[in-house]
């Protein structure tokens, strides 16, 4: 049986940053024997960019980072697989077998023991029991986004040769994902029109549906209002205070009427995996692991960070399920685990600092409020347009810097910029 001091399950924003930080602390020749990262994908894609992958304005072949490469650069080990069993008392996890497309066994089931385990397995979509939810597409991971991109391009081609020359798209949920997806969808539509020619042009109707009284309801009202104005300029139909009752093959049925929909994307709410309830750890109503100020679960030596965790702070507020929170939790856990490895006391507790809210609204537009002082999140400035867009891009670069370093991040950014200049913004295959 393999054994590691620290196992990190899940290579999302928090998991991969924690593995990179901790691996570098141990250093070459040591970290890869101490730290293991496990993920069911071989490629890491920063989750806040999935909406761009989904509409084809970001190429996952360029954007994706191989976990094996990150492991080599940051001195940790990587195993491809999915968590299928968890035994906190025995300090063991089970990784399911891997099979080829034809069913051939590639890697048998395995058990790995640990001293400390950090669960960073993310979350999925919350259907809220909506009838016909199976008719909607979800964007929970890179595979979902890539499959949807192929599907969307096929529907674009179909609409361009149909008699109606019309495509109705409904996006349910106007949080950051839904709003950014709607805006980016118009970018993809405009790009495809430059390619298919005048004779095959078609009309697109995008409906963004939100049950709350306003879009981006968890963000400052000014960000919501400005984003609403940009969406309206992009001719996106926004329905706020509208509850979805049912999804059919060609309709979204709401409490205010029916909305035609050839394509439905669900971006409303999160819910962690049902399997989390069977790990012997305390969970909440959406299957998140309940953690304390050390990010510790109800079991000794087991921690949880990111979307799969739920932490209520001293003031009664809960940590949001965002990449920003996962980034801070990864930094906190790296310090704590390193102190434990050095057998030194660690008395800090995690305190979330809200650095602001940013929304990307297409190629050259964005809206946000950012903190002018990291220690005082109430001191914010409002930004919009290209400045806000580049501020949003800088968050992406910061994540890459954490796992790649400055030089590799710079080279990668320049290579991607050059590729877009040559090949165009839209991926068509």
UniProtKB/TrEMBL annotation:
The keyword Oxidoreductase applies. InterPro entries: FAD/NAD-bd_sf, FAD/NAD-binding_dom, NADH-Q_oxidoreductase. GO terms for biological process: aerobic electron transport chain. Its EC number is 1.6.99.3. Pfam families: Pyr_redox_2. The keyword RNA-binding does not apply. Its cofactor is FAD. Keywords: FAD, Flavoprotein, Oxidoreductase. It comes from the Bacteria. One of its GO terms (molecular function) is NAD(P)H dehydrogenase (quinone) activity. Residues 4-330 form the FAD/NAD(P)-binding domain. Belongs to the NADH dehydrogenase family. This is NADH dehydrogenase. It comes from Kingella negevensis.
């Amino acid at each position: 049986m393999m054994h590691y001091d620290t196992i990190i399950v899940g290579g999302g924003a928090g998991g991969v940053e924690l593995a990179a930080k901790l691996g570098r602390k141990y250093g070459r020749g040591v970290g890869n024997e101490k730290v293991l990262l496990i993920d069911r994908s071989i490629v890491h894609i920063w989750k806040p960019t999935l909406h761009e992958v989904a509409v084809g304005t970001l190429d996952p072949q360029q954007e994706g980072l191989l976990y094996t490469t990150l492991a080599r650069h940051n001195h940790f080990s990587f195993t491809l697989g999915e968590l299928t069993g968890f035994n906190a008392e025995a300090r063991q996890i089970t990784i399911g077998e891997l099979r080829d497309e034809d069913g051939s066994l590639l890697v048998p089931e395995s058990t790995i023991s640990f001293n400390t385990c950090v669960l960073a397995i993310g979350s999925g979509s919350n259907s809220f029991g909506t009838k016909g939810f199976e008719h909607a597409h979800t964007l929970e991971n890179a595979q979902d986004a890539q499959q949807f991109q192929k599907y969307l391009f096929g529907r674009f081609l179909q609409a361009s040769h149909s008699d109606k020359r019309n495509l109705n798209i409904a996006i349910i949920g106007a949080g950051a994902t839904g709003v950014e997806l709607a805006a980016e969808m118009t970018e993809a539509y405009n790009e495809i029109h430059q390619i298919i020619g005048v004779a095959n042009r078609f009309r697109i109707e995008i409906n963004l549906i939100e049950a709350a009284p306003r879009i981006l309801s968890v963000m400052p009202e000014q960000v919501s209002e400005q984003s609403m104005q940009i969406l309206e300029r992009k001719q996106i139909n926004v329905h706020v205070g509208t509850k979805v009752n049912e999804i059919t093959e060609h309709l979204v049925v709401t409490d205010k009427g029916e909305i035609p929909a050839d394509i439905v994307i669900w971006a409303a709410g999160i819910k962690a995996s049902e399997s989390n309830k069977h790990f012997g750890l305390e969970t909440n109503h959406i299957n998140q692991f309940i953690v304390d100020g050390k990010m510790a679960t109800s079991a000794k030596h087991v921690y949880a960070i990111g979307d799969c965790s739920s932490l209520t702070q001293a003031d009664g507020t809960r940590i949001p399920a965002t990449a920003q929170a996962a980034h801070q939790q990864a930094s906190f856990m790296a310090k704590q685990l390193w102190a434990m490895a050095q057998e030194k006391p660690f008395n800090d507790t995690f305190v979330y600092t809200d650095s602001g809210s940013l929304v990307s609204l297409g190629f050259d537009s964005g809206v946000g409020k950012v903190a002018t002082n990291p220690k005082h999140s109430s001191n914010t400035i409002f930004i919009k347009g290209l400045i806000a867009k580049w501020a949003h891009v800088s968050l992406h670069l910061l994540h890459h810097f954490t796992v790649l370093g400055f030089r590799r991040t710079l080279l990668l950014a320049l290579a991607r910029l050059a590729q877009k200049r040559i090949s165009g913004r839209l991926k068509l295959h």
